Every structure is written in C-alpha cells, then in structure tokens.
C-alpha cells in the first residue's frame, strides 16, 4: 500500500500524481506530471470511474525500471489524451506535501499562499491509500482504496511497457 496524491492548480495547469511509501517523507517514490488538465480530470471523475493508462513503447528502455521511464503516452478512460512525464520533486512540491503530511485521506483545496514561500494559485488535491500491484517488470498499477468499502469513486493508474 502507498499513499497517492493527485493534485493540480484550480485554474488550468496539469494534473500530477505522487506516490509515497511514507507520508512523513516528502520525497515521493514516483512523481508524474500528466498532460490532462485538472478540469478535464474532474469531469471524468464525475462519472465515477477513472482509468489512467500510461504506456511506454521506447525499446531502448526495455530493461529500465518502470519508475525511471521519463515519458509515457497517456490514456484516460480509453482515450489517448497526451503524455505523462516523470519529474523530480521541486521545493514547492515538497512544501505542499509537507502541508498535507498529517493527512492520510481526503480531498480539498490548498489556498494560494498557504504553502509558505510560494506564489502558487489554489491547488486541488485528492489524497488516499492506493493498493500497488506489481504485475512484473512491464506492469504496475495503483488502485484507490475506498475507505468505507461502499460504492464511490473508482480511480486507477496503470504503468505498462509494450515491447
């Protein structure tokens, strides 16, 4: 199980996905910038089912661990919607994660200026526990764990390498 945080600026900007093994450590084990706009992902989430598939077809990276692949083709609910890029956490990202470190699950808004030392606009976020399933060297997935076991938002991210 990992802690997954999906976040993005309220007005424009891309969605980010961050996976952490420990919420107290602000260095993510995986940080991806998805080219899907925050507003588009919110619209997809209103339908109650979101599947994001990230596919790598770069033959030169066949022996590379999935978390180190720098660029992915992005599919959202079966439609190609752009790309995803692996990123290193910036100081601003680490400050934002530090702001949320006491939270295990939840969704909301971090108001602009709340993350000290930054001049960012409001950041929407959804933080939850994810089951991480490693299917082998060429596939890994993250599945949101619904805390109350009831019907609700289903959200999954798949990392797939095609040979």
UniProtKB/TrEMBL annotation:
GO terms for biological process: hydrotropism. It comes from the Eukaryota. This is Protein MIZU-KUSSEI 1. InterPro entries: MIZ1-like_pln. Pfam families: DUF617.
